[in-house]
Amino acid sequence: MIEILTPAELARARDTGALVADILETLRGRSTAGTNLLDIDRWAQEMILGAGARSCYVDYAPSFGRGPFGHYVCTAVNDAVLHGMPHDYALADGDLLTLDLAVSLGGVAADSAVSFVVGGSEPSESVAMSVAMIEATERALSAGIAAAGPGARLGDVSHAIGSVLGEAGYSINTEFGGHGIGSTMHQDPHVANTGRPGRGYRLRPGLLLALEPWVMADTARLVTDPDGWTLRSATGCRTAHSEHTIAVTDDGAEILTLPTVTRTSRAS
């Protein structure tokens, strides 16, 4: 099902998006060398419940996972890229961490992810590679958002994302990508991270999409951890993932998952 939100629902979506972004910003600031992934999950739980919101992950049990996810945030480290299950691991300086968070507030969900290098580590090949991958996914995300105006086709968005990732030299996995979002976290349409322009569903104002370009340094193949959830690069290479929830508007696309401080500075 593809949902088209009313203006009142879109207003609630803005509140949800701001909450997701602010929680991610706080978690990013707290994620330093020595921080345990289970503490990050606990902090996410406290902030979500404290805001009167609901986690989209705790009871999430799709066909590709193993049972309910059971945690409040996805924490993917280094070669993990998607659905990273929090576990007893203390972050090290130079680790590449991806935090992926989806929350529902007022009956509307928002989903966002951010990748970053932990700590202030000395320059190294792995850190430089990590930064390059992160920047490529962020550029691809920006390109996808720019292509997501009313009347555009889904293929236009996928093509914009894939063009940036391909030009940066990364192989693109098409098993997992972006998705529609609204009253539930995962909805139609699927938004692949590569595609042909001019094809697919025509975007309409009121449509919410979670766009999420992600790459692995030297492969497009994933493997699944014994936990049944965490997806890693098949070669053990590093990975990166960036995601925003956007709303298609009458004149373009609005990013809903920007931190409050960023929204304020853009408005002023």
From TrEMBL:
Name a single GO cellular component: cytosol
Please list the residue ranges annotated as the Peptidase M24 domain: 14-250
Cofactor(s) it depends on: Co(2+); Zn(2+); Mn(2+); Fe(2+)
Q: Which UniProt keywords apply?
A: Aminopeptidase, Hydrolase, Metal-binding, Protease
EC annotation from Swiss-Prot or TrEMBL: 3.4.11.18
Residue numbers binding a divalent metal cation 1: 100, 111, 243
Name the reaction it catalyses: Release of N-terminal amino acids, preferentially methionine, from peptides and arylamides
The reply to whether Metal-binding figures as a keyword in the UniProt entry is: yes
What does this protein's record comment on cofactor binding? Binds 2 divalent metal cations per subunit. Has a high-affinity and a low affinity metal-binding site. The true nature of the physiological cofactor is under debate. The enzyme is active with cobalt, zinc, manganese or divalent iron ions. Most likely, methionine aminopeptidases function as mononuclear Fe(2+)-metalloproteases under physiological conditions, and the catalytically relevant metal-binding site has been assigned to the histidine-containing high-affinity site.
Supply the Pfam families for this chain. Peptidase_M24
The UniProt GO MF terms for this protein read: initiator methionyl aminopeptidase activity; metal ion binding; metalloaminopeptidase activity
Q: What broad class of enzyme is this?
A: hydrolase
Q: Where does a divalent metal cation 2 bind?
A: 111, 179, 212, 243
UniProt binding sites for substrate: 83, 186
InterPro entries hit by this protein: Creatinase/aminopeptidase-like, Pept_M24, Pept_M24_MAP, Pept_M24A_MAP1
Gene3D superfamilies the record matches: Creatinase/methionine aminopeptidase superfamily
Q: Might you name a Gene Ontology BP term for this protein?
A: proteolysis
- Family, per entry: Belongs to the peptidase M24A family. Methionine aminopeptidase type 1 subfamily.
What is the protein's known function? Removes the N-terminal methionine from nascent proteins. The N-terminal methionine is often cleaved when the second residue in the primary sequence is small and uncharged (Met-Ala-, Cys, Gly, Pro, Ser, Thr, or Val). Requires deformylation of the N(alpha)-formylated initiator methionine before it can be hydrolyzed.
Subunit info here reads: Monomer.
Q: Which NCBIfam families match?
A: met_pdase_I (TIGR00500)
Q: What is this protein called?
A: Methionine aminopeptidase
